Amino acid sequence: MGNVFNLRSLVRKNIWDIKPYSSARDEYSGEAAVFLDANENPYSVAGQEARNRYPDPYQRELKQAVAEIKGLPAENIFLGNGSDEAIDLLYNIFCSPGADAAVISSPTYGMYSVSANTNDCRIIDIPLKNGVQLDSEAILQSCSGAKLVFICSPNNPTGNLLDTSEIEALLAQYKGIVVIDEAYIDYSGALSWSKRLGEFPNLVVLQTFSKAWGLANIRLGMMFASKEIIALANKIKLPYNISGIVQEYALRAIESKKNTISSIVAETIASRDELCRELCKMSFVIKVLPSDANFVLVKTTCPKEIYQYLLSNKIVIRDRSSLLYCQGAIRITIGTPEENRQLIEALKQFGRD
Ligand SMILES: *Cc1c(COP(=O)(O)O)cnc(C)c1O
Hints:
Blueprint: H1 7-10, H2 13-17, H3 24-27, H4 60-70, E1 77-80, H5 83-94, E2 101-104, H6 111-118, E3 122-125, H7 136-142, E4 146-152, H8 164-173, E5 177-181, E6 203-208, E7 221-224, H9 227-236, H10 244-257, H11 261-280, E8 285-288, E9 295-300, H12 303-312, E10 318-319, E11 329-333, H13 337-352
Parallel strand pairs: 2-3, 2-4, 4-5, 5-6
Antiparallel strand pairs: 1-7, 6-7, 8-9, 9-11, 10-11
Helix pairs in contact: 4-10, 5-6, 7-8
């Protein structure tokens, strides 16, 4: 089956036709001496650093730094207010409210459906096989009418990488957009799908500074895709979606931390493996799912009781037992060795009570 990909036929007509808002900084971004074009206050009134000027709407300097660490051209990169902004923009670009659909595979990250709902887009749920693995065949059979397929690998909340062959089959045969959310890729040792953008014009990859980079607070997400898809996102995003403070902060973080992230990740992975071994010994643990991420999903006999008990010990985890195919499941983020030790102590005590 040949894959005839036609971007224009997937994009909402109004979005394709939009003439974007042109900000003052769009029209002039050079090194002038006197800026009287953006109705800014010439005086920096508040704060210690001057913040009276609008930031670069396309984050050129930061994007160049991201391009270098990711080994991708800047034209294939979009930066968003968290990857959540990119998810919402994808719905905006491709899914006409009240008409189009997107595919998800439960159990998975909640924002794909929340964003579908706010955009009045129908969700087609093709659950993961055995609750853990992508079912590309079932997706291909049921996806007619869907513009987007969301894949999360490593998947939240199950923690596992999805099979390369299943994803390849989907990318090769599906005529819509395949979005691969790689929020946890740094913990997995897998090669990013962004390395294969040249092979698949329908591929969109999401990553974030919120996890391995430890910058959840600044809200900075990345989207990698063909330059045509990136251009559409740039066309419809809010003009100044990343503040100047965030751009400068992230740039400094990349410059100073790019060589230390992998050792922090390795520490988290070692802690994860140790935590898994401890959890497996506990009487109320049925199964610890193998994880390629910085959290583990644990099937237990009594998730609500564990959750409440830990809370009474000032430890908060996530009760995921109400999700489809997650009966008895709790999700535990890997903390520092000291935090993990406190968790294990509390769980041992729970087992004794
Ligand atoms: C944490 C997480 C993100 C990150 O979202 P941001 O908006 O970038 O903080 C994205 N996808 C998944 C699956 C996540 O678990």
